[in-house]
Amino acid sequence: MAKGVRFMNDAIYIVIFRRTTDKGMSATVAKLVKNSGLLIFFLFCYTMQTADLPFFQASLDCQKDLLLFSIDRAYSYRTFNTAFRSATSFAYGTEVKYGMNLFESITKESDRDKARVNCDRAFSGETHHTVEQYGTIHPAIYETFYNPIHSDAGDIIGVTVCSSNVTARVLAEKRVTTLTKELESFTYTAAHDLRVPLRVIHGYSKILSEDYKSALDDEGRKLVGIISTQASHMGRLIDDLLTFAQLGRTIVTPRKTNLRDVAQQAIDEQVLLYPNSNTKFTIGDLPTANCDPSLVRIVFSNLISNAVKFSSKTALPIIDIGSTTEKGVVTYYVRDNGVGFNMEYSGKTLWIVPATSQTGGIRGNRRRVGHRSEDCGEARW
Question: What is the pTM of this model?
Fold first, then answer.
């Protein structure tokens, strides 16, 4: 009879095995095996034969980054590994021993309260995990998984615990969150501050083109038109910057989406923006995808607008939107017949990079989003 529970985000499995003999619960040894890239623990509970103890303990002790122990109904230690014993000594200055009460090894009252609550939840039959801080001498943050141990009769007779120090990860996550908020705040402020001089430039160029049109020669009117066009372009860049800053707070709501309709909407936008363009658009096979319509619309809009821009110097620009399927995986693409770029650097096309083109000319390009998004099912972009 066996019962198992998944630990550590599907990377570690702890499976509790029991077997009965004529003498009642007997012992077996613990062993570690590799299976399909997953580390699997076989913890054999209950009383162990003396000859089995070294094997069992060695299997536990080989886990240097995992703190493992089990307690019985009296909160007494039945098993633990060297990593747990060392971590307890480092955190509280106490030495863990077999049969010792769990709460004797924890010197901080609030930590004892947390440990009691979590163990009692497991004793009630609940498998759960927590991320909490423990320790007095050297406090640290631990992600801990609690699993009840059942007898053959179905009674809960103990708790098995697997823990790891995640202090560095938690602090890194907090730092990333802080930096993200700071970046969003800076982006928002900078974008709005840029709008003020931009409105002035746009306003004065409009005055020149309307009120002083007769005073300007052809070259003057052309230059004023360039100023107005570039000011409008700058406004769109600011809008894109604000949109990008808000993406991190966007709630992804995937659903079946007709990508042909999404692509056509993006094309219609470009036709309105560039009515005099002779760009030819073709839409091939675009299977329905499970994705967030709003976010994928941004993807298509950006890719198609880039394709229009980067193929604008071609005599007859052609933009092809479609997909390919290989081994059940769909890859969507947007490509144009512009100059293109060295495929050696294709991995960098998804990065936010500074523009390389100047007013005098735009380098052609070819765009393809090259990685799958988890929110898009089996689709790859």
Answer: 0.52
